[in-house]
Specification:
binds glutathione; single chain; 202 residues; alpha+beta; 52% helix; four-stranded mixed sheet; globular; 8 helices
Length: 202
């Protein structure tokens, strides 16, 4: 399988943590590419009409996207319900946490494009502030969750979101008012799958 990826992408990191947790790393070839909404990658577009990474291309040419779908596919390859709880409250909690984390990543990645790609004269501060309101509100909710109880699609997505904030928005200083979340992030950063996938500039 071929994974269109970039070492800075928090969504790709979800897939890479999942693959390592499930022992599937040696079945996935990472194809590192760069892209933005204004400089698409033709290989990715040929497989994924939305033109985003991660995009996973199976050996028979079938393409899978986006990160929740790829992670669940890998989970089934590894026997199922290893990182996606099978049913009940555990499943809905994990999926809700994945949604919060993906929402943080979306707001942060869009803000990053605003800072790094959009011409200065076209920037709109109120819009960027609106994205950061989402991020801060979501982090406040996570401060009150019992994240230590499971390492699943919910918590590994949160790890990826927090790592991206540290990587691109360190000055936000999210830890200052969220000590429980900070302690959890420090503990989970020692996990081999998390340590091995820390974000890096491509
Ligand atoms: N919902 C998607 C979001 C993926 C995404 O936004 N990826 C970014 C890179 S971090 C991307 O490909 N951006 C290019 C674009 O927006 O055209 C997922 O969960 O995989």
């Amino acid at each position: 399988m071929k994974l269109y990826s970039n070492p800075a992408s928090p969504y790709v990191r979800k897939v890479r943590i999942t693959a390592q947790e499930l022992g599937l790393n040696d079945r996935i070839e990472l194809v590192s590419i760069t892209l933005t909404p204004v400089s698409p990658h033709e290989g990715v577009r040929a497989s994924n009409p939305i033109g985003k990474i991660p995009t996973l291309v199976l050996d028979d040419g079938t393409a899978l996207y986006d990160s929740p779908v790829i992670c669940e596919y890998l989970d089934t390859l590894a026997g199922g319900n290893r990182i996606f709880p099978a049913a009940g409250a555990a499943r809905w909690t994990a999926l809700r946490r994945q949604a919060i984390a993906d929402g943080i990543m979306e707001a942060a990645v869009l803000t990053r494009y605003e800072d790094a790609v959009r011409p200065k004269e076209l920037r709109w501060q109120a819009w960027a502030d609106g994205q950061f309101l989402k991020i801060r509100t979501a982090l406040d909710v996570l401060e009150h969750e019992h994240l230590e109880s499971a390492f699943d699609i919910g918590t590994l997505s949160i790890v990826s979101a927090l790592g991206y904030l540290d990587f691109r928005f360190a000055s936000e200083g999210w830890r200052a008012t969220r000590p429980r979340l900070a302690a959890w992030a420090a503990a989970v950063s020692k996990r081999p799958s998390v340590a091995a996938t820390a974000p890096a500039a491509a």
